[in-house]
Amino acid sequence: MTKPTIRLPEGFYLHELDVIDSTNDEAKRLADKGAQSGALIWARQQTTGRGRRGRAWSSPVGNLYSSLLLRPDCPLFEAAKLTFLIAVAMAEAIEMVSGNQIRPDCKWPNDLMVNGRKISGILLESASNDGTQTDYLVIGAGVNVAFYPDDARPATSLAALGAPTSVKDVLQAYVARIAHWLPIWEAQGFAPIREAWLTRAYGVGEPVIARLTQRTLEGTFVGLDDDGALVLRETDGTEHRIGAGEVFFKT
Ligand code: BTN
Description:
By secondary structure, the chain is an alpha+beta fold. The strands form 2 sheets. A 7-stranded mixed beta sheet has the order 1-2-3-7-6-5-4, sandwiched between helices. 24% of the residues lie in helices and 31% in strands. It contains 5 helices and 12 strands. Biotin (BTN) binds next to helix 1, strand 3, strand 6 and strand 7.
């Protein structure tokens, strides 16, 4: 067995790869073969990295691509809230490796932003045997360490922000923060994660547009409810809880 090149907390098992199609796809293949909770797939490069909404995720050598396999013993709707835990853990990791120079904001549902530019994205995928209870979760996270894509949506990287670091350091800090937060989630549920996420929330109190499948809503982003839904208040005071969709801030 090859010696892991990074130190992982107890309960995490590294699968280190030079190149793969997508770490999320590899994690799902391993999960289907019975891999245990805590498997962490890390690739230096992805050939078909995927983002949310079927978008491609540019994956050259130099950025972080990882997917964590978890098997939480809970319904799918509870497990989905782990995406906020992951966002907080990654924000803290980026802050740590930058020597507290960079403080990423959490943009609902699970992007990390610095000065309004995206530095990290999370792709959560789940599987269930009965449609209700979680079989497994695969939580993919990409961080722009050395490079960022030239995209219509503004992005940035740690290097561009003047905080060059190694992919390994980001990964190690990230897993350490997950190891910090997971027992809190197990013991206390979503509430402390929600609090931590809200201290970094991007755009609270600001105008927001939510593009849903059937319609578009405009209002103010007033917070996050107990299930992780974005709360949007229209000018007439009507509040909407948005569980899925794409949101745009005007700032
Ligand atoms: C998004 O912001 O749209 C989510 C991006 C998620 C990218 C990561 S990189 C590691 C993992 N493997 C993938 O194919 N996607 C996720």
